[in-house]
Amino acid sequence: MAVDSTYFRPRRLGHANLWVQDLARSERFYNQVCGLTVEFTEPSLVASFLGTGHTPHDLGMIETTGGKARYGRDGLLQIPEGIGINPGLNHIAWELENEAELVAAFKQIKHDRIPFDQTVDHQVAHSVYMVDPDGNYVEFYCDTVKDWRRVLHGPLNLISGAWDPENGEPFTDGRYDTNPAIRTVDNASVHPQRVTHVVIETAALPVMLNFYTTVGGMRPVWSAVDNSITCLRGSHPAYRFHLALCSAASPAYHHVSFELANEAALRDALGRLDANGIAPEKIVDHPSKRSFFLLDPDGLRSEFYVRRDPAFVDLSREPVELRPYLI
Question: How many whole angstroms separate alpha carbon 155 and alpha carbon 47?
């Protein structure tokens, strides 16, 4: 495989997308407990999309398929047979600056014969889907409509169709919202501000690091002294990092992280969770951050945190099983 250092160049993490066993049950949890607004749903895909307003969704979820295929607009095979059988990570999505950068990267991976899965028009975004070395599904996309709520709201059917990146002249302006209106769910236990990063465990950290720095176009910003953890970021200056890769015995999705406004908001959230009889999986009180972790109805993990120290703290002396929680 030829390697060019200038493939995709993400700005930031756009969203994480999960497979869930019961869509209605999971939607209630992420809306009423975690405080994410239901932006739109796609009944034909058995999917729901929730967020804080920074992007069309911070978190997407699709009900498990039983192994049956599901189709998008114009007959697009969106979910092949045998995919989405169990709850877990569906994909991680990385937002690019504009369509010109997305198309240029796509043409380069084709030229260098780097495998990709499909290209999709989501009406408010164009996307290229790939698989990373651990088998995680990865989306690189650009927004195509700045006022995405005008297009996506309420229940919608057959949102996604085929997209040909080589047909037409790609636009060069950034169509993401630079001044988003942040939404909160007033009666929810937690009031997150934005999704910021994902944490992935891997038994092949050097291989994964090579993928995310070359094909994935992210820049390492910190590594543990023993090289058991590496954090990477895109180009957006307002985020500390967007992806953490942690050495582990086997590959696994660990969690997605949401930032809270301040420590008072975190204390209030913990108080509301306790009043509602909801116990966090873990509470972290560390020099670098304070956070708590919630498990959804399928046991999938989300973090809600406040950063205390902008500097990275070495975690190589911490127990291996705790390190993904402390990043």
Answer: 10
Nearest by Cα to 209 from 225, 237, 228 = 228
Cα–Cα dist 292/286, whole Å: 11
Closest CA to 47 of 34, 132, 30: 30
Q: Give bridge partners of residue 231 from the DSSP assignment.
A: 222, 244
Nearest Cα to 153, choosing from 145, 161, 142?
Answer: 145
Residue 174: inside a domain, yes or no? no
Q: What is the mean pLDDT of each run of 10 residues along the chain (327 residues)?
A: 69 98 98 98 96 95 97 94 97 98 97 96 97 98 94 93 96 94 95 98 98 97 94 96 97 98 98 98 95 98 95 88 95
- Residue 113 and residue 202 in one domain: no
Evaluate the CA torsion angle 260, 264, 270, 272 in order and state its sign. Answer: negative
Q: Is residue 183 part of a domain?
A: no
CA distances from 141 to 46, 123, 165, 240, 250 (A): 22, 12, 11, 21, 28
Terminal CA-to-CA distance of the chain, rounded, Å? 32
Q: What is the CATH number of the domain that holds 153?
A: 3.10.180.10
Check if the beta carbon of residue 112 is closer than 8 Å to that of residue 2. yes
**Domain of 25?**
10-162
Q: According to the model, what pLDDT value does residue 205 have?
A: 98
Is 221 found in the same domain as 317? yes
Domain boundary among 138, 162, 186: 162
Shared domain for 320 and 199, answered yes or no, is: yes
189 occurs within a structural domain: no
Which pLDDT belongs to residue 306? Answer: 98
Do 259 and 139 belong to one domain?
A: no
At 165, list the tokens: 């990146």
Q: What is the DSSP string of 151-190?
A: T--EE-S---EE--TTSSPPP-S--S-SS------TTSS-
